[in-house]
Specification:
Radius of gyration: 19 Å
Strand content: over 45%
Helix content: under 10%
Protein name: Zymogen granule membrane protein 16-like
GO molecular function: carbohydrate binding
Largest sheet: 5 strands, antiparallel
Shape: globular
Oligomer: single chain
Keywords: Lectin, Signal
Distance between the termini: 37 Å
CATH architecture: Aligned Prism
Structural class: mainly beta
InterPro entries: Jacalin-like_lectin_dom, Jacalin-like_lectin_dom_sf, PolyBind_ProtTraffic
Pfam family, one: Jacalin
CATH class: Mainly Beta
């Protein structure tokens, strides 16, 4: 009887959510002057908007969490370039270019191999990606001033989908 109980507990523990927290941070790049920021939202990122000054640097970024757009980071100049994610699609990589004063280019890459490329490919390169294979982009952080984004970092974590509801375990 005791062995049956142990077997049942073992089977139940296999069905439970993993206890490991898969969180990682890609160190910020850029000069870092201005006001600090951190994007906010509940659930998965479902879209990205990016603004740029013509033939220059990135001026603003905005993320949509589920159906709600986060506060704009930086400033909106002209028309944004936007990437709407499909159901189950997540951001798995961010690359781009930076110089001592601004982020000049950002490239968001999804789990389906799609990408959004905004800005100019000049200066120093960066490449952000999660440490854990099952992690996705959770939020962006960095700094901005009255002209644009001066520093950018990425935070990665796991979101478990539970019967249509998302649970963010990376920050628990």
């Amino acid at each position: 009887m005791l062995s049956l109980l142990v077997f049942a507990v073992l089977c139940a523990s296999c069905l439970a959510k993993p206890a490991l927290v898969h969180y990682s941070y890609s160190l910020a790049v850029g000069g870092g002057s201005g006001t600090s920021f951190s994007s906010e939202g509940e659930g998965r990122i479902t879209a990205v908007r990016v603004w740029e000054t013509n033939n220059a640097y990135i001026t603003g970024i905005q993320l949509r969490y589920e159906f709600i757009w986060s506060k704009k980071i930086g400033r909106a100049v002209g028309n944004p370039q936007e990437l709407n994610l499909f159901d189950g699609e997540v951001i798995v990589q961010i690359s781009g270019k930076y110089h001592s004063n601004y982020i000049y280019q950002v490239i968001f890459v999804t789990s389906r191999g799609r990408s959004l490329i905004v800005g100019q490919p000049i200066q120093n390169s960066f490449n952000f990606y999660p440490t854990h294979m099952d992690a996705e982009l959770k939020l962006l952080s960095g700094r901005y001033n009255s002209n644009g984004i001066t520093s950018l970092g990425a935070h990665w974590g796991v979101v478990y989908m539970d019967q249509g509801n998302s649970t963010d375990v990376s920050l628990q």
